[in-house]
Design a protein that fits this description.
CATH topology: Spore Coat Polysaccharide Biosynthesis Protein SpsA, Chain A
Number of domains: 1
EC number: 2.7.7.9
Catalytic activity: alpha-D-glucose 1-phosphate + UTP + H(+) = UDP-alpha-D-glucose + diphosphate
Protein name: UTP--glucose-1-phosphate uridylyltransferase
Shape: globular
GO molecular function, one term: UTP:glucose-1-phosphate uridylyltransferase activity
Structural class: alpha/beta
Number of strands: 13
Helix content: 25-40%
Family: Belongs to the UDPGP type 2 family.
Number of helices: 10
Bound molecules: 1-O-phosphono-alpha-D-glucopyranose
CATH superfamily: Spore Coat Polysaccharide Biosynthesis Protein SpsA, Chain A
Distance between the termini: 30 Å
Amino acid sequence: MIKKAIIPAGGYGTRNLPVTKVIPKEMFPVGSKPVIHYIVEELKESGIEDILMVVSSHKNLIVDYFDSSLALEAFLASRHKLHLLSEHPIPDIRIHYVRQPYAKGLGDAISFGKQFSGGEPFAVVLPDDLIFSAKQPALGQLIEAYTKYQCSVIGLKETKTEELHHYGVIKGKPVEKGLYRIQDIVEKPKQNPPSHFAAAGRYIFTPGIFEKLETLEADAGGEVQLTDAIKASLRACDVYGKLLEGDRYDIGLQKDYLKLITDMLKTEKNPQ
Ligand code: G1P
């Protein structure tokens, strides 16, 4: 069973500058909770027990958010208002932290989780991809596919042609409804994307991914790409892609962030 998840949260959030100079993307508010709170809730609902958060020196707000604040608690207690904190409790789950000293890409961030994963399959959840599903949390959907096939699985979303250049895009062979065996994956294709199925920030990996990451060189932009490690894995073992059910918002895209806020207002989905 998948009980551990890595959340890579070390990047600079350059797509969201200038606000990310001081506020990490993961801390953007959605109602009275930050984006990362929803991610941690999804993991908890998917049965995850331990999270490794890969952070960096400018991400201390995340660490503080999931910690207690004795001063605030004392202040609220003195005014009989402690309930204000317990109405929105922080998910009860173990969170471990490691710092990624240089922003050398998603692949580099994941490699910091080798010891944490303990040689077992594990999840990777990108904190800027919020997916709301009324039926089953997005990661839970992937865990179900992993349990059946016992191979790495990537969460996919059907994506408009003009947005595919933001994502890893797969070429896949249908295996069953909504499930594909991945034949190729291209990171941020500038032209001729191999399909409309984009990697949507949810992954289950078998431990072999670490060996692939170790052999990779950084790309021209100085980043070790997770997509390259996935591509390298395809030769050794099957990797599946699972179409995820649920509404996806890429917080890295301003229009998605604003849409999330307006959708929540429209549907009165309560952004607690
Ligand atoms: C990363 C991955 C990409 C994936 C995307 C999902 O890109 O490299 O394959 O589709 O996340 O959000 P990034 O958003 O870090 O540029």
